[in-house]
Amino acid sequence: MQLGVFDLAIRGSYIRLKTKETLMDYSKQEFERLFKENYPHMYRMAFSMLENNDDAKDAVHQVFAQVWKGKPQIANDSIRGYLLAATRNQCLHLLRSRQLQRQMEDELQRDAAASESEEREELLQQLQQVIDSNLTEQDRRVLSLHYDDEMTYEETATVLGISASAVNKHITRSLAKIRSTLKIAK
Length: 186
Hints:
Elements: E1 7-10, E2 13-16, H1 28-50, H2 53-70, H3 79-134, H4 137-148, H5 153-160, H6 164-185
Antiparallel strand pairs: 1-2
Helix pairs in contact: 1-2, 1-3, 2-3, 3-6, 4-6, 5-6
C-alpha cells in the first residue's frame, strides 16, 4: 500500500486524514448556517441538563463563542457531535459551579448561625451575671415569675403576696438597673 499525501502511518495502522476542503470553513455565512442548524439541538440538551432557559441559552452561546474564537479544525461530518459534546461539557461546568456556589453559601450560613448563636449565648451569660450581681432577691423572683414562667402582674403578685403595682415597680426598677449596667459595661 502506497501512502498518499494525506495518509499517515501510525504504529503499523493507516489513518486517512481529511483534506482541507472537508474541514469547516468559518466564514460568517457558514458560521450563521452552523448556528441555525445546530442551535435547537444544543439548546434542548442544555435545557434538559440545566433546567433553566437563560442558563441554557448562555451555555449554547458560550460554546459558539468558543468555536468562533478558537476555530477548531473539525470535519463537516462530525461538527454536530463536537458541538453537542462541547455543550454538554459547558453545562457540566455550569452545574459544578452552581454546586460549589451552593456549598459556599451553605457554609457561610452555618458559620453565621454558629457565630450568632455564640453571640447570643455570651449576651445571655452577661445578662444573667448582671441580674445576679445587681438585683435583690425579690427583684430576681419577680422577673423570673413574669418572664421565665410567663405570669401576668396579677399572677406574680398573688404568688409573692404583694400588689400588682408593686410587681410593676419591681420590674420597671430591675429593667432600668439592667439597662444602665449593660450600657456602662459596653
